[in-house]
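Summary: Need help interpreting a holo structure output

Steps to reproduce:
1. Submit the protein chain below together with the SMILES for zinc ion.
2. Request a joint structure prediction with the ligand placed.
3. Inspect the structure token block that comes back.

Expected: a single structure record containing both the chain and the bound molecule.
Actual: see attached output.

Input attached:
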Amino acid sequence: MLKEMNVELPVLPTTVIGSYPRPRWLVYAVKLYRAGRIGVEELREAFDDAVQAVVREQEEAGIDIPSDGEMRRDDMVEYFAERIRGFRFYGPVRVWGNNFFNKPAVVSRLVYEKPIVVEEFQYLRRVSSRRVLKVTVTGPYTIADWSYNEYYPSKEDLVFELAKIINSEIKRLEEAGALFVQVDEPALTTSPKEMEWAIDAVNEVTKGVNIKLGIHICYGNYELLANYFDRLRFSQLALEFANRGFRDIGILDRLGDKEVGLGVIDVHSRRVETPEEVAKALNKAFKYVKPEQIYVNPDCGLKLLPRKIARAKLENMVRGVEIVRKELRERGLDRIPLKR
Ligand SMILES: [Zn+2]
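--- attached output ---
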């Protein structure tokens, strides 16, 4: 059973998955920094300014629960691996086409030396007007899956070790005042044979944590995942539906009393969804879950879209939610408690 926290949100809270397009000038600033032409202080200032810009943009679009857009992170795995002792980088590997990924290798026992994203959260809190904010952390399975394991006897051992580290990080976020942390696990369903222990491992990150925890799984096999819904110790599952034309929305039938972060915006298409399409998607979801169980978000991070399109998509997402909220208000449903 989910527990109510002492914070209220509008019904159908609107949020993002995490990443947001970097302002063009920030892309240039990062290049200048890499070329040694600006220093770390100037880069930090650019990151701070970019966070302010994209938080404001989300808030102006009407997003209830913004993120910092992951402005400081080049890559969701690399960023964490760089900040955990025991990883080493041999150089970029080609992942698809002409895209390169700086694949980390685990070369010694992993040690959680210092907070990874706590300062990101603290800065976000300073610049946002919203009470509830979303902080994303990359999950242990995905970090392991996208790394070379040159130290632990098995992938399973590595994932459980990483889970302890991510659990420590979430506890530090809780101490710093975070109310909502989302664990990103895009790789979770990619090896069906590993699912049994992978679910136990991701649950490890929730141990002793008393704030809201969500898990985001995209591009996955949702039929397979649905078999594990009841075992996942997260109050919310943020899933993609728009890109698949809402074909597998029926899996929400098996959600129990958990919440869904309903993906209603396709991040792989530059076409801006209409508010009516968003409203229609919500009404589809109401066949399987109560309105009180739904948060509304894009399918995934928006970072690969042009910034203007990302903003337009968020604006229309909120307009679509407003259409449905009006109907819900007439039925007396206006606000919901944050639950964990
Ligand atoms: Zn995603």
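--- end attachment ---

Reviewer comment: The two ends are 9 Å apart (CA to CA). DSSP finds ten helices and 13 strands in the chain.
Status: needs-info
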